[in-house]
Amino acid sequence: MSAPASRVPGRRVTINDVAALAGVSKGAVSLAFNNRPGVSPTTRERIFAAAGELGWSPNQTARNLSGRRAGIVGLAICRPARLLGLEPFYMEFISGIEDVLAERSCSLLLRLVRDLDEETALYQEWWRGRTVGGAILVDFHRDDPRIPPLRALGMPVVAVGHPSLTGGFPSVWTDDASAAAEAVRYLAALGHRRIARVGGPSGLGHSGIRAAAFEATMAELGLDGGRQVATGFVGEEGARATRGLLMSPDRPTAIVYDNDIMAVAGAAVAAEMGLSVPDDLSLLAWDDSQLCRLTHPPLSAMSHDVHHFGEEVARTLFDVIEGTRTGTHQVPTPSLTPRGSTGPPGSPGRV
């Protein structure tokens, strides 16, 4: 008979060990210790007995959270307040996080910061001041300067980004490279030869991943002149980038945008310049939203369930806090939703 987990040298007991010994799920253990409905009195007692035998308690799995406000999760976003309020992605993402936090009677502490140095200092202040029990990191850069100081801090963190960007932090991510390649292949299959991309800031890791995949797929398909313009995600910059592309001698017949706001702005510029969508110009947005569906014609988009994405991030953070997760977790890749804004070059308009 093998030794109990608590007696194996160097082996830290986890919630999974308690669940296995009690013959229940990890969720049932969490419900029992949080005194929530869904577990019978008999099962609850069996869970408590298993925990006692292993010497486990929720506080033991997170000893470094002792005395902290573990019911508060921190999220800092480097965005102007005005832009965040207009960006459907973050509204959906945060609502997904909030749904999971509400299940556990926890709260989200959200702060907008001006730069990465301010963000790092804020997380250090929160952790050392025992304000939060863990944090969600977003918008990773290549060689992100936040990683070394936050790793040294020892704060439980879940990173939102491709594992190549997140410095070994447990991460939740989508395959942006495959999605960007699918967008280009779709437009090429419609007959487009001149495809452009209006992307986010060049320093952002996910923008760089999309840019590289866009360029590689254009080359693979033998398409020349795939121009890419970096912007700050706001509508005004998306409009300016679109105007510049459409005034060039070899203007594109299709444009892929890194978010929905810029795609809507691009549609307005096309109308301003007397171009018909999709007759003269096809438009494809990233991050499907209500904006895409309300625009006329409705915008084709690379869609994924952003609310579910936020839920998975929050659940992963609690797993990190409880010591049951250390690796990466991929959520479904954004998939193409064709609508009226894309068609073959010179095609009749569709709704």
UniProtKB/TrEMBL annotation:
Q: Please tell me whether the keyword Lyase is annotated for this protein.
A: no
Q: Which residues form the HTH lacI-type domain?
A: 13-67
Positions with biased composition (Low complexity): 332-351
CDD domains tied to this protein: HTH_LacI, PBP1_LacI_sugar_binding-like
Q: Which UniProt keywords apply?
A: DNA-binding, Transcription, Transcription regulation
A Pfam family this chain is assigned to: Peripla_BP_3
Q: Which PROSITE patterns match?
A: HTH_LACI_2
Annotated InterPro entries: HTH_LacI (IPR000843), LacI/GalR-like_sensor (IPR046335), Lambda_DNA-bd_dom_sf (IPR010982), Peripla_BP_I (IPR028082)
Q: Which residues form the signal peptide?
A: none
UniProt KW DNA repair keyword: no
What SMART domains does the record point to? HTH_LACI
Please list where the region (Disordered) is annotated.
326-351
User: What protein name is recorded for this chain?
Assistant: LacI family transcriptional regulator
Organism for this UniProt entry? Streptomyces hydrogenans
